[in-house]
């Protein structure tokens, strides 16, 4: 899912993002996608109407930098609190890539990316402890291999 979302992002160009930014009255799907990305990037809504549209449009001001920021997003920044904030979007039947594609190809890719980030978070909850256990085992193995090498060297010295 993550690779698919990244490949979908790579297929976007600056014009696709500029097209989204230029919308005067964006469809609901476009708004949902930009809101979810603003939440991930910790961009606050406009205070007057608690709308993410203007802050979201500002986020798209430099399409190249925006796409690059998504491609290089530090997935370690995904927290439980962030995923809880995204849950209403993820659970929304209108926030599915297939539905979003009907209103915007660019936003479909962005929607896939948001879903992939949430999925990554949940997969990482399972994988992170296993990675830590693996690292601990590798560290212990390294210590044992060093001791074994020293013992072999001593044995070799005795046999000479």
TrEMBL record:
Instruction: Return the protein name.
Output: Dynein heavy chain coiled coil stalk domain-containing protein
Q: Which organism is it from?
A: Ranatra chinensis
Gene3D superfamilies per the UniProt record, alphabetical: 1.20.920.20
Task: List, for all copies, the residue spans of the domain called Dynein heavy chain coiled coil stalk.
Answer: 3-159
Question: InterPro entries, from UniProt?
Answer: DHC (IPR026983), Dynein_HC_stalk (IPR024743)
Q: Give the source's domain of life in one word.
A: Eukaryota
């Amino acid at each position: 899912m993550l690779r698919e979302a990244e490949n979908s992002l790579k297929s976007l160009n600056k014009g696709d993002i500029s097209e989204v930014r230029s919308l005067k009255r964006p469809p609901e799907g476009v708004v949902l996608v930009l809101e979810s990305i603003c939440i991930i990037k910790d961009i606050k809504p406009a205070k007057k109407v608690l709308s993410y549209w203007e802050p979201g449009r500002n986020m798209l001001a430099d399409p190249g930098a925006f796409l690059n920021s998504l491609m290089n997003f530090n997935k370690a920044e995904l927290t439980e609190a962030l995923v809880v904030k995204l849950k209403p979007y993820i659970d929304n039947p209108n926030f599915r890539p297939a539905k979003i594609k009907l209103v915007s190809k660019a936003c479909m890719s962005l929607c896939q990316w948001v879903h992939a980030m949430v999925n990554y978070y949940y997969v990482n909850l399972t994988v992170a402890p296993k990675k830590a256990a693996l690292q601990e085992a590798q560290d212990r193995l390294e210590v044992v291999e060093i001791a074994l090498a020293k013992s072999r060297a001593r044995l070799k010295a005795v046999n000479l």
